[in-house]
Design a protein that fits this description.
Its EC number is 5.1.3.1. This is ribulose-phosphate 3-epimerase. It comes from Exocentrus adspersus. This protein is α/β, with parallel strands linked by helices. It has one domain: TIM Barrel. It contains seven helices and seven strands, in the order E-H-E-H-E-H-E-E-H-E-H-E-H-H. The strands form two sheets. Strands 3-4-5-6-7 form a five-stranded parallel β-sheet. A two-stranded parallel sheet has the order 1-2. The structure holds ribulose-5-phosphate. Ribulose-5-phosphate binds next to strand 1 and helix 6.
């Protein structure tokens, strides 16, 4: 496992985001052991309408120091490869996200062009939703067929659901509510990490 954990959400009101507060919260999470920040720049409920979004966002994200740009394949079905190419040209890694209703077959042809596949374990939209265990076969399939691929899960992931994610083969964990609402973020992050690290080698045998 290279990395795990942490989500920091910037919703549709990104223009109104208090960046100094975002910085403070992000630093706190990193100090508490998170390996990376996963920033949602748009509310997932807008996913079907964002065909115009990527050309606007890719360059500024790269300029801001983002190292991986993940996008949902559903609204850009005819442009996935060209978006992958633009992201790479901008110097970032490529992540491809799947909504719960999207099967693995929709992404298979693109996996070799991606650094990471994100399996959403809730409907995109907001934090605090119930983890969808029925998404785990997608993670298992990916891990089985792509032992070295980064596989991320996002939605309802916390201490009660991390086992399922880790055993299925996820190595990048987005956890919002479970960390943010905890009085001991460091302990929660450490526990999530330990669960993932103790499972990951079993997935690769
Ligand atoms: O962006 C999301 C949905 O659109 C994430 O699932 C969510 O923000 C993660 O938080 P939580 O751990 O509370 O589910």
């Amino acid at each position: 496992m290279e990395r795990n954990s942490l989500k920091c959400k910037i919703g549709p009101s990104i223009l109104n985001t208090d960046l100094s507060q975002l910085y403070v919260e992000s630093q706190k999470l990193l100090d508490n052991g998170a390996d990376y920040l996963h920033l949602d720049i748009m509310d997932g409920s807008f996913v079907p309408n964002l065909t115009f979004g990527h050309p606007v966002w890719i360059a500024p994200m790269a300029d801001a120091g983002v190292n991986q740009y993940t996008f949902h394949i559903e609204p850009v079905a005819n442009n996935v490869l060209s978006i992958c190419r633009k992201i790479k040209e901008a110097g970032m890694k490529v992540g491809l996200a799947l909504k719960p209703g999207t099967g693995i077959e929709a992404v298979r042809q693109y996996i070799d062009h991606a650094d990471m596949i994100l399996v959403m374990t809730v409907e995109p939209g907001f934090g605090g939703q119930k983890f969808m265990n029925e998404m785990m076969p997608k993670v298992q399939w990916l891990r089985h067929n792509y032992p070295l691929l980064d596989i991320e899960v996002d939605g309802g992931v916390g201490l009660n659901t991390i086992n399922a994610c880790a055993e299925a083969g996820a190595n990048m964990i987005v956890s919002g509510t479970a960390i943010i609402n905890s009085t001991d973020q460091k302990a929660v992050i450490a526990s999530l990490r330990e669960t993932v690290e103790s499972s990951i080698h079993k997935c690769n045998v």
